[in-house]
Amino acid sequence: MTIVRSSGSLDQLREEVRRAPPLPALSGERYAATHAAYEAASDQRSRLKEWLARELAPLLDGCDPVRVVGVGVGNGSVDTVLATALAVDGRSVHYTGVEPHAASAVEFAERLASLGAAALVPAVTIGKFADHDAGYPADLVHFVHSLYYVEDLSAALEHALKIARPGGLLMAATAPLEPLCVLTELVCPWGGHRPWFAEDVRAELDLRGLDVHTETLVGQLDVRDVLADPLGRGEAVFDFLVGARTAAMTPGIRERMLNHLHAISAPERPGRVPHPLDITIARVP
User: The domain 9-283 is classified under which CATH number: 3.20.20.140, 3.40.50.170, 3.40.50.150, 3.30.430.20?
Assistant: First the structure.
C-alpha cells in the first residue's frame, strides 16, 4: 500500500489548533474502550504479531536460556506470540514485562502463565522502566508502542542498552509521524510532554553509532465510520487516533482533519488509510 504524504493544508490546521482551546484528554476508561475499537479497525497488530514470530524470534536462535525484557507490555497480547515462538524445543525463556499500570501488569502475567510452556518463566515489574533492574543481562529489550510516552527518550534507550548484553538486541516498534501521527501530535493533550515517534528513535540510535536496521510494516486503518459519522459511530476510532475527546473539536478543525484522512485514503479502497509501523533493531556493542 502506498503511503500518501500530507499536504500543505496541515499548516492551516496547525494554525487553527494553535488558536483553539486544548481538547480534553482521554480518561483511563475511555482510553481502553477507544483502543479496543481502534485495534478492531486496523490490521497492523496482526501483521506485527506475524513479524515477531517470523523475523524477530529467529534472531535469538542460539540463546539458551533467552532473556527478554519488554517495556510497556500492557496486557501481554503481543508478548504471548513472541514468548510462544521462543519457547520451543525445551529452550528456557525468562520473559520479564515492565508495565506501570497494575491491572495491565497482572493480566500480562496471567496471559504468559496460561501458555503452559514448562520452560517459560514469566515475571512482571509494576513501575517505571527507569527504575527497573533486570538483575541479569538481557538478550532482547523491546518497546512495542511504548516510547511515545517516556519523558526522556535518550535516557530510556540508554537504560535499555545498559541492561542488554553485548551482542544483544534492542527493538522498538514505533509509528512514524506521517501520515497519521501528524494529527496526534497536533491535538493530543500531552501535558507538557514532548511525544516521540519513529524518526526520533532512529535519530537517537544513529547518534550512538550503533548497527541499526529499520523496516516498515504498512497496515490499513478503516476510517470509513470516522469520515461518515465522526460524532457517532466513528467517534471512538477518531478519539484514539488523536488521543483526545474529538467531540470538543471546533467544526473547522474537525473538517480539516477529516479532509486529511480523505486525502491519504487509498484510491483503490476509499476510507482505508495507511497505518505504518517502523520496527527498528539495534545490535548492542
Answer: 3.40.50.150
Asked if 76 and 108 touch (Cβ cutoff 8 Å), the reply is yes
Q: Where are the domains of the chain?
A: 9-283
Cα–Cα distance, 86 to 115 (Å, whole number): 12
Which pLDDT tens digit goes with each residue over 52-83?
999 999 999 999 999 999 999 999 999 999 99
**Of how many residues is the chain composed?**
285
Q: What CA–CA distance (Å, rounded) separates 61 from 36?
A: 33
**Cβ neighbours for 110, distance < 8 A, ≥ 6 positions apart:** 76
Put simply, whether the predicted model's pTM sits higher than 0.90 gets the answer yes
Tell me how far the alpha carbon of residue 105 is from its chain's centroid: 17
Close Cβ partners of 212 (under 8 Å, ≥ 6 residues apart): 202, 205, 206, 280, 281, 282
